Amino acid sequence: MTRSTTRRQAIALGLAAPFIAAPGIAPHTHAQTPWPTKPVRIIVPFPPGQAADIFARLMAEKLTELWKQQVVVENKGGGGGIPGVEAGKAATPDGYTLLIATSGTFGVNPSLYPDLPYRPLVDFKPITNIIRGPLVIVAHPGFPASTVAELIELARKEPGKHSYASAGPGTAQHLSMELFKLQAKLDIVHIPYKGSGPAMADLLGGHVKLMMDSTASALGAIRDGRIKALGVTTATRVPPPLDNVPSIGETVAGYDSAGWSGIVAPANTPDAVVNKVNADLVALMRDPAVLRQFAERATLAAPMTPAEFAAFMEKDMATWAEVVKATGTKPGT
């Protein structure tokens, strides 16, 4: 700086200096590349066909439109959902792999499996719940009982003779039926499947006569008369199109159970990505067109903040721990 440089010029030069790039160096930009810039994978830890898969695919379709990037659903079924959850845990925490968490994998499994290879609220970041919906006891048209009261009477008359299918040991379908058996004092044999899709296929084929399933995955077969609905698991009846199906609680006082399905990310996923996915999913779950698709499956949207979802999961784990203990449920039983 020369003596002739004025104080004002010195200040001006000083302020400008940080913005002058050295020769051969590109000017620094503070703009960040918007996420996502490539396809996003959503792992569903169950086979295709059940509620978690149905709503994951619905959200994937809508997010693909919103993000202008393909959002694909990858099913990794079997093993009580554990292999699929492990795949989500092992994924790179960059937001490009998300995981569907359910009342079975995150609510029940922590108390069902002593050596569970994942910790829901440590190995993952909650994003939002998506659905909270009732389950329904359904039966093959040839099954002698057509109501919950008739099922109770039949099962008490013939203890151990009848069986029911579920999506697998420790799933919401399994434990909700076990809770029903416990409260109604029934002996009905459990037949576990690797997902509700295979179980429903055997129910439709008459290989099994009774099943607990989500309203979302059972609705189509109920509507066209291929199976019959005996009762829904919520304390009160659900909105149309299943509003004519009694709740189990109308026959077994105090009975109330519902499944849920949400989305999480591997631990260490950037908070900015978690918050963006949350905001976009919550916005979708307020869209009347999306809500109509939820209602058509007799399922309610249940958006939450990440903190609310974490608290919800913690409470759900405590609830199912009591049921597992009371029923003596073990993996594979």
Largest sheet: 6 strands, mixed
Q: Over all CA atoms, what is the radius of gyration?
A: 25 Å
Content of β-strand: 15-25%
Count of runs of 4 or more consecutive helical residues:
11
N- to C-terminal separation?
A: 84 Å
Oligomer state equals: single chain
CATH superfamily of the largest domain: Bordetella uptake gene, domain 1
As for the CATH topology of the largest domain, it is D-Maltodextrin-Binding Protein, domain 2
**What is the typical, i.e. mean, pLDDT?**
88
CATH architectural group of the largest domain: 3-Layer(aba) Sandwich
- Derived from helix and strand composition plus strand pairing, the structural class reads alpha/beta
Which regions have little confidence, pLDDT < 50, spanning 5+ residues? Answer: 1-31
The main sheet orders its strands as 2-1-3-10-4-11
